[in-house]
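Hi X.,

You mentioned you wanted examples for the new student's onboarding notes, showing what a folding record looks like when two proteins sit in one file. Here is a clean example. The first protein comes first, with its sequence line followed by its structure tokens.
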Amino acid sequence: MVTVAETTCTVKRFWTFSRKMSIRPSACDDVVTLPRPGAIRGRTDHDKQVDVTRSRLGSGRASVARVAGIVALVLFLLGLLLAVIALTFSVEVSGSSMEPTLHPGDRLEVDVLHRKDINRFDLVEAAEPDNGAAIVKRVIGLPGDQVKIRSGDEGARVLVRPSGSRSTYVVDNPAWGDQLAHDAAVCCTADGTNGQEEWATIPDGSYWLLGDNWSRSTDSRSFGFVTQGGVKAKLWFRILPRDRFGRVRTDARLVRTAQAD
């Protein structure tokens, strides 16, 4: 049989639950807290699926982070390797014989694969015939060409007759500027050096090299022709300094002249 007191407590619990979803202390019993609605139910399949999805997302983010870290490390090591290779297979310019094209401290990549494929006005690293010292110069004369330096009222002029041609050309190298106008030196003797104003024929497998800084260059005017074996590499790409990074521009050209010998 239900007593009046028990009925009163039941009513109080219902009233309190409906207002605040919990049973406050009453005179009937100790504090009782009911779980939030829905918590008394078991976990549904949907809840489990949500947890699985969250777990997969977390695992996916961790995998992406690991892959990104590996890629960053590989790129760093690759960049470091390329830098080492670039510095190893390069030559640093010393001296002022190639100014204004090249300056002391400039570093250029060496192209050893095409060192036998030399064209007129290429920049090359070569060994000086007299002592084997490394030099950087510009190719002016090719095998079979005739070369000569003439001195006149307008100063010195570098003349070239390409192999197999009777036409005479003047070398127009903007890098020389007005230095030739103040030079009375003549060339060439049979070995391609200064001394007399005569045509010199470049032997097969040899080149005639000049510096871009006309008055401050020790070149073929001093040591003569350079053999193909003395050419170590072609130089056409500058890697340092960074503000001049890129292909080295060449503005030199041959200009045909009607002037007699």
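Then the second protein repeats the pattern, sequence line and then tokens:
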Amino acid sequence: YYTAYAIKCFRTYLCMMILATVNKATFIYLQSIGKAMMSSVLSLIREVVFGVGLTLILPLFFELDGVLYSMPASDILTFVIALVMISHTLKELSAPAKQPLRESAADEEAVFPIGSEHNFRIITISREFGSGGHSIGKALAEELGIACYDKELIKAVASRTGFDEAYVEARGENAAINPEGRYLNYSEGTISPSDQLWDAQKKVILELAQKEPCVIIGRCADFVLKDRNDVFNVFIGADRTYREQRILKVYGETDVPISKRVRERDTARARNYKLRTGQEWNQADHYDLALNTKIFSKEDCVRIISDAYKA
């Protein structure tokens, strides 16, 4: 009797294991594209709402067998909800931007043609982690009275792709790699979330550059806009010791040692730049101007870049 009942338990309780694995894969996929909240909600629905709820309710109708039915029923209901969520997410990813950044490319090209030599409209700023490139870019835009795109670019890319803003911010300058350190490979005809993000990022940068004079911080903007002659490319850097001290002063300490924080962020940016452009990220000959913030203050950097931009 006990053996027969044990077999029945296993067969009933685990009969929807295939759907359970699909549900788990859905949780992981949603989390991987930055939709951690959606993934967590779906997981809680399966484990708590259905898993616990049905365990309490079904025995009222099916006695002890109701406990066995609770898990397959939970997997079936979760699978239905997961299908709806994945369908909605895929529509978001394939949909055009909700708010296009331009009305007509042809009209704007007439107003803002790709510039002639030394007639700069766009400034791109590439920067080493902790060098102060972000604050220099913001101050420079204010000085020149033009737009600065950093967080705003993240929002535009998130709107276009359907990715969470936190995911865009974290992965926009980081190449996707597997634990062994090799770049992730996807089957032919399949585009990875990282590549979807890169494609959307390029389109947004091109549209922003065509829309108005501006400062664009990071995200390989210098390479994306390489076919324009009205772009002034700047690299902001400093030696590692100075940058470590500045980060501790501005942002404070964390559980991660400061040397590791700087090394990992610089490595991620360099790796991403190499993957997307085929070039070395911190090579001076890729830029029109390189500044060392250990030598030049933020105000000095703003003045130097501003003078060169206006020249």
